[in-house]
Amino acid sequence: MTSAPKAARTKRTKVTRAARKNNPAGEMALKDHLKELRNRLIIAGIGLTLGAIVGFIIYQPFFSALIDPVHRLSDEGRIVTVSFSAVGQPFDIMLQVALFVGLVISSPIWLYQVWAFVVPGLKKKEKRYALGFIGAAVPLFVLGVVLGWLVLPEAVQFFVGLSPEGTANVISADVYIPFVLRLFLAFGFALVLPVVLVGLNMIGVLPGKQIIKHWRITVFLIALIAALAAPGSDAITMFYLAMPLILLFGVAIVICLVNDKRRAKRAAKAEQDNEEYLTTGPRPLDEL
């Protein structure tokens, strides 16, 4: 009874090994790339949908936490509130919040699908970087969202504090909620960016020297992102937000430079072995 499935598995294994032997670089035709992209998008979409269902379930307490910084300011004597200006707006906001929660929950899935879409075009030995990419990108993305959450009260207090005395802040939900979600995503993707740089370096696309060459622009952009995403009454807030980003970029640059040095050594050794082979011929078996 079990001989047929076993024989089928053995046949598939032999076919797979033969395919890898005939195509070690994992090259794919355009049609295969489009099919691969479709499959990856479907899997990521399913993960996002399942996460969004969880978002709908926890919508009420999560929405209350999002508008809590506004309620704190209203408790201080200011007239500040979040309002809905249309009949269908509550559902629209619910959908946005649920999709955001789904995006965070399903981040291991869609981040892996993004990297796995690149993997088939890489050499076999480079595919092991996928696990390291996911292992670093997912925690950093979640950490970025958490940092955005911690910064949110400061941002709300700063903007509300710009209101002239004697006025009220009636904030529309379709303005406040997208602002908050963009703040969270900005920090999440900002912390993932160094991992992307390391990944591109590992596959030989982005040399470390190229990153160092534009380090001034990188530091300026980090400071600008911190200033825009987390405005505060002084420079201390921006400093605390910019330092983790600069530190991560520094670590990414060091990793890229070390990897470039190791790659250069391997290339030099391979070239030396090739020259020895061309000049002296193959080495005797007793010397190996």
Automatic annotation (TrEMBL):
The lineage of its organism: Bacteria, Bacillati, Actinomycetota, Actinomycetes, Micrococcales. GO terms for cellular component: TAT protein transport complex. It comes from the Bacteria. It is found in: Cell membrane; Membrane. NCBIfam families: tatC (TIGR00945). InterPro entries: TatC. Its main location: membrane. Part of the twin-arginine translocation (Tat) system that transports large folded proteins containing a characteristic twin-arginine motif in their signal peptide across membranes. Together with TatB, TatC is part of a receptor directly interacting with Tat signal peptides. Residues 8-20 have a biased composition (Basic residues). GO terms for biological process: intracellular protein transmembrane transport; protein transport by the Tat complex. Residues 1-22, 269-288 are annotated as: Disordered. GO terms for molecular function: proton motive force dependent protein transmembrane transporter activity. The gene is tatC. HAMAP family: TatC. The keyword Oxidoreductase does not apply. Belongs to the TatC family. It comes from Citricoccus muralis. The Tat system comprises two distinct complexes: a TatABC complex, containing multiple copies of TatA, TatB and TatC subunits, and a separate TatA complex, containing only TatA subunits. Substrates initially bind to the TatABC complex, which probably triggers association of the separate TatA complex to form the active translocon. Keywords: Cell membrane, Membrane, Protein transport, Translocation, Transmembrane, Transmembrane helix, Transport. The keyword Membrane applies. The chain crosses the membrane at residues 41-62, 93-118, 130-152, 179-203, 215-232, 238-259. It is a multi-pass membrane protein. This is Sec-independent protein translocase protein TatC.
